[in-house]
Design brief:
This protein is mainly beta. About 10% of the residues lie in helices and about 45% in strands.
Length: about 110
């Protein structure tokens, strides 16, 4: 049996920090906890249901960079774990995420 291996554009790295997800349509903050991050997005466990494709703002602490706030879209869901794709990152924030990813341990799956 051939094993399927997911091909990703960016490597994922472990990042477990509190995150505030703000729903753009309702300006409602939903607390959560990040699980992993890459240059293209992050995953997080959140306390309320979000809709696929929903535009949100995510605010969280990056190691050595401090608090960052990014626009993102909900791309996938597994129970209360959501995948968010970053949308229109500024060059400064993109570089902060790249630097943080370089210092974080790689995510190898298995949550």
């Amino acid at each position: 049996m051939q094993q399927y291996i997911a091909q990703r554009q960016f490597a994922r790295h472990i990042l477990s920090v509190p995150v505030d997800i703000t729903r753009k349509t309702q300006q409602e903050k939903v607390p959560g906890l990040t699980m992993e991050i890459s240059q293209g997005g992050l995953s997080a466990m959140v306390t309320q249901e979000l809709k696929m494709g929903e535009a949100v703002e995510a605010s969280f602490e990056l190691p050595s960079a401090g608090r960052v706030t990014v626009n993102a879209k909900v791309r996938n869901k597994n129970l209360f774990r959501y995948g968010f794709e970053f949308d229109c990152l500024s060059e400064k924030v993109r570089q902060q995420i790249v630097s943080a990813c370089e210092s974080l341990p790689p995510y190898k799956g298995g949550w």
